[in-house]
Amino acid sequence: MNAKLDSGVTTRPVTRQTYDEVLVPTYAPAAMVPVRAAGLDVWDQDGKHYLDFTSGIAVSALGHCNPVLVEALTKQANTVWHLGNGYTNEPVLRLGLALTEATFADRAFFCNSGAEANEGALKLARKYAHTKFGPHKSRIVSCLSSFHGRTLFTVSVGGQPKYTEGYEPLPPDISHIPYNDIEAARAAIGDDVAAVIVEPIQGEGGVIPGDVAYLKALRELCDKTGALLVFDEVQSGVGRTGSLYAYMQVGVTPDILTSAKALGNGYPVAAMLTTEEIGQHFNVGSHGTTYGGNPLASAVALKVVETINDPAFLARVQEASSKIFANLEQLSADYPELFGKPRGMGLLIGLPMAQGYKGRSKDYTKIAEKLGLMLLIAGADVVRLAPALVVSDEQIAEADRIMREAVKAFLAQA
């Protein structure tokens, strides 16, 4: 028998300890609990201020509580929230038009997360291959150190065994090859391959940009074998690299593209984009989602795309990127014993730890957090910066100041 919900639960004090008491321990969140945010500014339960250079892992591209997005969400919240997939709605139709007109795609499928978008892309690729070539064409080729989501299918496709331990048996017909290795790709991509999925810049794998020659080779191999090329732009998409999608910068057009994270600026929404020919293989009843493309998510995402897909906005992203790279290159030059050369694209940047400090990226970011700067890691060896795309020059300078202060504190206790 269930006890009646305590009427005071919504105002009951909660702390970081509450996480350990009531939530499944899939994460190890920071000790501080953010309670309020605006732009790149965050405040915790004690009123302490932080400069956020994480944007919720490349999600809040337009900053926290962006007033334009708040207005779009509020307006839609007072209009219609949810209809179910027996009906369409005006916001999702407008969002579909915006994305297909701005990209290579003719068709869009909307869902709730990057994992779902990749799941849909891989299902579509297999369905296309089975229909066009037969069931023998089913193998998925992915890259080592990649990350494509947490469903059983997508986590198996991702090239990081630590995320699949204990979940065996895993889905079959999945191969992994080294990233940026053209010869390995040639050896792996044969006539039985249904899809090759790749991040144009590996995020979780260490913020490693794909070589243009490598991505072009994948395109050529897919054309040769009839496989579909899938670009996972969950982290790199929606302005993060300085163009609406990174494929536009590298000059390689995929058959399917997945987008999430920044697409909703924190409101859960994702998209799978593809061509007319391929999209037709998802016919009525072959795939679906309850919440995907709901009016609330679509209204927010449409405003995000309209705001970011502007030449002046994207030019500013590239300008901000140049300033941060210049600061990090100088930081690395000043402390070569601690950091390697920064890498990345746009405002998705990795700063690798030097040989003597491998495995200690988290130690450094914890010190930076105590000093008021929120940073990410990309594995144990890389500090990752992914500030909101609206970051100002003043905030860039402040982040540089705190990172230098954190270096001194880190080396003092190392």
Automatic annotation (TrEMBL):
What PROSITE patterns does its record include?
Answer: AA_TRANSFER_CLASS_3 (PS00600)
GO terms classed as biological process: L-arginine biosynthetic process
Q: Name one Pfam family in it.
A: Aminotran_3
Where in the cell does this protein reside?
Cytoplasm
Domain of life, per lineage: Bacteria
* Coiled-coil annotated spans: none
**Pathway involvement?**
Amino-acid biosynthesis; L-arginine biosynthesis; N(2)-acetyl-L-ornithine from L-glutamate: step 4/4; Amine and polyamine biosynthesis; ectoine biosynthesis; L-ectoine from L-aspartate 4-semialdehyde: step 1/3
Identify which cofactors the protein needs according to its UniProt entry. pyridoxal 5'-phosphate
Binding positions for pyridoxal 5'-phosphate per the UniProt entry: G114, A115, F147, D232, E233, V234, Q235, T290
Q: Which reaction is this enzyme known to catalyze? A: N(2)-acetyl-L-ornithine + 2-oxoglutarate = N-acetyl-L-glutamate 5-semialdehyde + L-glutamate
Question: Which keywords does this Swiss-Prot/TrEMBL entry list?
Answer: Amino-acid biosynthesis, Aminotransferase, Arginine biosynthesis, Cytoplasm, Pyridoxal phosphate, Transferase
What are the EC numbers? Answer: 2.6.1.11
Question: What GO terms are given for molecular function?
Answer: diaminobutyrate-2-oxoglutarate transaminase activity; identical protein binding; N2-acetyl-L-ornithine:2-oxoglutarate 5-aminotransferase activity; pyridoxal phosphate binding
Annotated Gene Ontology cellular component terms: cytoplasm
Tell me which Gene3D superfamilies the record gives: Aspartate Aminotransferase, domain 1 (3.90.1150.10), Type I PLP-dependent aspartate aminotransferase-like (Major domain) (3.40.640.10)
Keyword Cytoplasm in record: yes
Q: Has the keyword S-adenosyl-L-methionine been applied to this entry?
A: no
Subunit relationships:
Homodimer.
Q: Which PANTHER family match?
A: AMINOTRANSFERASE CLASS III, SUCCINYLORNITHINE TRANSAMINASE
Family according to the record: Belongs to the class-III pyridoxal-phosphate-dependent aminotransferase family. ArgD subfamily.
> Which HAMAP family does the UniProt entry name for this protein?
ArgD_aminotrans_3 (MF_01107)
Additional remarks? May also have succinyldiaminopimelate aminotransferase activity, thus carrying out the corresponding step in lysine biosynthesis.
Q: What is this protein called?
A: Acetylornithine aminotransferase
- Species of origin reads Massilia horti
